[in-house]
Design brief:
This protein is of the alpha/beta class. It folds into three domains: 92 residues, Elongation Factor Tu (Ef-tu), domain 3; 111 residues, Nucleotide-binding domain of ferredoxin-NADP reductase (FNR) module (Rossmann fold, 3-Layer(aba) Sandwich), CATH 3.40.50.80; 101 residues, Roll (Ubiquitin-like (UB roll)), CATH 3.10.20.30. It is 22% helix and 32% strand. It is built from nine helices and 18 strands. It has a six-stranded antiparallel beta sheet with strand order 4-3-6-1-2-5, covered by helices on one side. A hairpin with a 2-residue loop joins strand 12 and strand 13. It is globular. 37% of the residues are buried.
């Protein structure tokens, strides 16, 4: 069965004001309800001043507890897409989104679940918490760090979950305005004896680094990181033929073939070059966003040959078995390889 188009239209059925700078967008995909797992995300495609921009946002809904698909977005300084969505999209509007991707999901075990959430990092974690509470017997403890009380996202929703699961859910609030920034001692105090827990961390990079470094283990730490889109350096055509030949990447035996819509190009294979880089070298402009292996915007199907992904924080094992690859991370192993963007 052919895979659905990467981007699909969805109607914004309503918008929920969570805080002064945070909104939850309730979405109804035009093709029907999405199948997804708690902790996953969708990538939005928008046109702003004639420029196509892509950004990934986590679901705050969980399939076990919510009949509607919801993604929560916070206004950030310099956040072109986040701020545009909050300022311009209204109930009844249509947006373009991918189907859900991501591997920031529950593991199949009975270990306690600890969530460390910095600001809007609560978004995928509340999805995980709702799923774990509804479908397992696991204990769930969340530490939510916010700038101040007015910045707390999902305050009422978390209070409702605590009331519903008083013996299994604990929520600890840390306000920077009262206690300063979270430190390693506070992380260890919250972990306590649950050193064998599954730990889910989402928030600003320094926050996530702090928790990862402080957690003693032996439990596993899972993080959700959305990297910024890489800047594509313009090709330098100023060098003469001799210099160009001297500075060119060495080629190896074989070819890489890229199929993008009605275009097909083949280029000599270069060691260590990703499919996305090969496509650009061949003059194509495939979809991409993060270039860090997290958003799945660059997904394509490997229809011939083999490849290894340097990083994969988006595709499931089942998708990999079906032949899908993140082209920003996939490097051909075989002499020749063919990928097709669908």
């Amino acid at each position: 069965m052919p895979r659905p188009p990467l981007f699909q239209r969805a109607t914004v059925t309503r918008i929920i004001r969570e805080t002064a700078d945070t909104r939850t967008f309730v979405l109804a995909p035009s093709s029907g309800p999405f199948t997804y797992r708690a902790g996953q995300f969708c990538t939005f495609r928008v046109q702003i001043d004639g420029e196509e921009l892509l950004r990934s946002y986590s679901m705050s809904s969980a399939p076990e507890t919510d009949t509607e698909l919801m993604t929560t977005i916070k206004r950030v300084a310099g956040g072109r897409v986040s701020n545009w969505l909050i300022d311009n999209v209204a109930a009844g509007d249509e947006v373009e989104i991918t189907r859900p991707f991501g591997v920031f999901c529950l593991q199949d075990n009975d270990a306690p679940l600890l969530g460390f959430c910095g600001g809007s990092g609560i978004t995928p974690v509340i999805s995980l918490a709702k799923s774990a509470l509804a479908s397992t017997k696991r204990e769930v403890r969340l530490l939510c760090a916010d700038r101040d009380a007015p910045s707390m996202i999902f305050e009422a929703a978390l209070a409702d979950l605590v009331a519903r699961y008083p013996d299994r859910l604990t929520v600890v609030r840390h306000l920077d305005s009262d206690s300063g920034y979270l430190d390693a001692a506070a992380v260890l105090a919250f972990v306590g004896t649950d050193t064998d827990a599954d730990v889910y961390v989402c928030g600003p990079e320094p926050f996530m680094d702090l928790v990862e470094n402080a957690f003693p283990g032996p439990g596993k730490v899972f993080t959700e990181r959305f990297g910024a889109a890489a800047v594509i350096a313009p090709e330098d055509d100023s060098a003469d033929g001799a210099d160009g030949a001297a500075n060119a990447e060495p080629e190896v035996e074989g070819t890489v073939t890229i199929i993008l819509r009605n275009k097909k190009i083949s280029v000599p294979r270069r060691p260590g070059e990703t499919f996305l880089e090969s496509a650009r070298r061949g003059g194509l402009a495939p979809p991409f966003s993060c270039e860090s292996g997290t958003c799945a915007t660059c997904i394509a199907k490997l229809v011939e040959g083999t490849a290894t992904m340097r990083v994969n924080e988006a595709l499931t094992e089942e998708e990999i078995e079906e032949g899908y690859v993140l082209t920003c991370q996939g490097v051909p192993d075989s002499a020749s390889a063919v990928v097709r963007y669908e």
